[in-house]
Amino acid sequence: MENHQISKSSGEENELEESSVTMLDVLEEEKELEEEYAAVLGASDEKFCNYSLGAIKRQALYSCLTCCPDGRNDLNRCAGVCLACSYQCHENHELIELYTKRNFRCDCPTERMTGNRCRLNAGLKQPANPNENNTYNQNFQGLYCTCHRPYPDPERTTEEVMLQCVICEDWFHLHHLDSTSHATKLMEQCSEMICGTCMDKHPFLQSYNGLSLSLMEKSGDTSDGDILAVSGDVCANSKDNDNKLRNDLDKSISDIMNIGEAASSEPNTDEPQQKRQKLEEITGEQSPSKKPVDVCRRAILKNNYEKGPTFWPADWRNNLCRCMDCMDMYKSEKMEYLLDNDDTAKSYEERGMRRAATESSSYEQGIQALASINRVQQIDAITEYNHMKDRLKEYLHTFVVNKKVVTEEDINRFFSEIRSERNANVGQPYFCR
């Protein structure tokens, strides 16, 4: 009996340890949330509407279905608002977080917003004309992927992993991009993804498929299974493959530019230098003072594209051809953004992180506050936090069951009840006589 009690006591103690939360856990979780916030929202302005600035290269956006109810069935009736307007003008509205979109101008003060007036553009005559250059996809309706389902999907019981296409900026379930395990491994290594529809819509991208990522088996070593490498003639981290690329390009340039092997038996000592100059001109390594030759790089790349999505390394855009014909093509297809390094989501997130780094985080403030209180006060704080956490989970569960949207008023009501309970527990003061 005594052993049984000891075992039971140990089990309860272990269970308590697993369910307990330390102040450091709270601060670490807060730090992760702040980093995520900084990455997605840090580079966008949360206080000022950017409508007056025109189209923004990349910004955090929201679709308001409260102001645009017809947008659920008609993309032409959808509208997107900037971060600041989502806070100030559409509070308690049904908003869909769109992550980031490129070249978009806030719709808040325009005719697309039925019955809404932008508070941050009070001096502007409203409603303003619609932003004709804005583009809208099914994400503005709260739908994603080829399955046209919402995110998170209420009918899905497993984790949803999604990737955004760098061209159409729609989001796709990983298992709908590729039903095999290959897509998972590619996702872990790729920097950007282009969906199969966009690859077919813009055939010039197929010429660069040799720069994309593909799965290969380790030669002579299968202990780690499949690994990622760059298909075709380019390998991002391999000097040997890089030299092979240069040799192949050198040979192709010789054929195209008619500077191949000399017909005479006498060696041409200037030929390597000539070939190297042509290679530099085409690979984009020439000095700014040199004028690029009008030879299209796509003509010397191997096109081994097979239908479907493609996954790309971080520097793939640097290898896009910049000849006169291609530059005109980017302009006609409105894809000049591919040549802009600041267009990438990664660049946007890095700007947000740098901006957040200049400010004191809640994590740093919490660590300082934690160091300033004694052990008893720390335990009291954790006890109160765990109590509040459990109550909040119970409170929010009722909204999940009833499929209701949680509003700011609901959250304020919750904390008001918590304060009332705390005051009730204090009780009446006791006076000694």
From TrEMBL:
Sorted UniProt keywords = Metal-binding, Zinc, Zinc-finger
Show the segment(s) annotated as Disordered: 1-20, 261-291
Taken from the UniProt entry, a GO cellular component term is:
cytoplasm
Sample GO molecular function, one term:
ubiquitin protein ligase activity
Cited Pfam families: zf-UBR
- Where does this protein have compositionally biased stretches of type Basic and acidic residues? 272-281
Q: Where is the UBR-type domain?
A: 47-123
ZnF (UBR-type) intervals: 47-123
**Which domain of life, per UniProt?**
Eukaryota
Q: What protein name does the entry list?
A: UBR-type domain-containing protein
Q: Origin organism of this chain?
A: Glossina brevipalpis
